[in-house]
Amino acid sequence: MSIFGAVDFREHEQVVFVNEPSVGLKAIIAIHNTSRGPAFGGCRMYPYASEEDAVRDVLRLSRGMTYKAAITRLPYGGGKSVIIGDPARDKTADLLRAMGRAVATLQGRYIMADDVGTTVRDMEVVRTVTPYAAGLPDAAGEPCPATAYGVFQGILAVAAHRFGRQTGNEGPGSTGLDGNDLEGLTVAVQGLGSVGIRLCRYLHAAGARLTVADLNAARVEEAADRFGARPVPADEILFADVDVLSPNAMGAVFDDASIAGLRCRSVCGAANNQLATEAHGVALHRRGILYAPDFVVSAGGLIDIAHEGPAYDPATVLADCGRIRGITLDILQRAARDGQPTSQTALRIAEENFTVGGMRRAA
Ligand code: NAD
Predict the structure, then answer these.
(1) Are 273 and 42 within 8 A, CB to CB?
(2) Over the stretch 51-67, which tens digit does the pLDDT of each residue have?
(3) Is the pTM of this model over 0.90?
């Protein structure tokens, strides 16, 4: 396969292939852009069907991180890493330490964190060999709910813009939970993992009516019991007739086939790279489905990391994630004014905030 000729190899600064057979480590670290600061991004462990799939994933995800940091004006660039393997079977402390040593060779150009298939506990193992691993567990060993809270803020922006709902305060000191009227708004949540289940809690508290699906039956049962959510089979959730569809499982959920069958009025969820290609943002726009760009509404985790340090305070992190509502609303309003797909408006605004080779990205 060609790397330099690959469509997704756009303006990446560096891609590192890591091979340590003694511990079964095959990994790729991609640094997309460091003009705003060190490349930051999670380490995903997944049993990719092919090496091409792993390369494509790490290239697309690292690029997305550049945009995520730029749209929220955080002092980071975009990076990501993938480990090819099954986390349930192949993840060992030796493998994590070997990955950490590979990250250490980049001397801070890349900072890793947890992602699908890795946990904040794994990052503690990695930190025994390199300081360039972020992600703090709370007292219960759980990651901060910042990502879910950020997606909730995105849904509040969608609710205000598309459905004319009152959505409380977002200013300093606001919990972001007061005065939000989502009473009766219907939301379908795909994926009830670390992000999805917490998102359900916020939505339920604001009065939304939930439809949910997950491959894990216990998760579905939990959402039904705690939030009165209506379960549907996993292969039906994308096509639910709802006000908001919230993808919080895997990427590339919107392609020609799925978009043709959608019955939702808007989309807002944490899953990275929901659009199979940029053209699918245009396709959603043509179908009149309001898309809150994933790299914007899922930025809570990154905002959380930016707060890490001795003065870390979860309440301050959540208040800062309130910015996601204003950023999202600005994108939705500008796109409506210009008659443009929201996906393209969001890319353009982010590109104003980072440079490539001394040039503004958009230039
Ligand atoms: P997770 O692994 O904890 O949860 C994902 C859930 O989706 C699991 O419960 C899984 O069973 C379910 N799932 C997988 N395929 C499914 C399908 N086809 N239909 C229904 N359910 C399915 O992951 P997470 O941390 O909750 O993250 C969810 C998404 O958000 C991921 O795409 C991740 O990359 C993205 N994201 C997460 C964060 C974060 O802070 N955790 C930040 C930004 C983006």
Answers:
(1) no
(2) 999 999 999 999 999 99
(3) yes
